[in-house]
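Predict structure. Chain length: 206.
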Amino acid sequence: MIASLTGKIQYIASDRCVIDVNGVGYEVFLSTEGLSRLPERGETLFLHIHNNVREDAIVLFGFSERMGKEMFLTLKTVSGIGPKLALAILSGMPLDSLSQAIMTGDVKGLTTISGVGKKTAERLCVELKDKVGDYQSATSQTAVSTIGVLGGSTALVDALSALVNLGYPDSMAREALGSVKKQLGDETFTAMKVEELIREGLRTLA
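Prediction complete.
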């Protein structure tokens, strides 16, 4: 089974891409967030892969982060949720917000996701309430650890958490915020609001 792929972007569609790996093109389906983070055609990328085996086909689903793939697999354990709906759920909310909604039983919030009705939302909360805490704690722990590396206030923690929730790897988000700090100086950087940090971080990542 294919666990990951590293290759060049050959083609991008509304819900998938084709990755050229040594002359072999692999069609991979991604979430909305995953598609938004794809590099330009011809550039190299890495994706974690899940193989969904059907009677008539093997369908590949791709994730830029391992935690995204793990949540996808967790969602698929819920009755009535197949791979396409699981991907739609990941497209509907950042990972941290999704795990929080499930843990707190936020049925109303979950039904705002396309394809998720009240009964499906209730099943998510009941069946996964005790299984998604690690996703939220991992995101929070990553964010908190940044204070010791970059220095700063809780705004920095929130900014890093936001960038991670948007799908950027921890190391990339840290590097981006580090670049912002270097460009603006310690005093200005420390005084920045969370929205400003996110905006400048995204500008660096663009």
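Summary: The CA atoms of residues 47 and 130 lie 28 Å apart.
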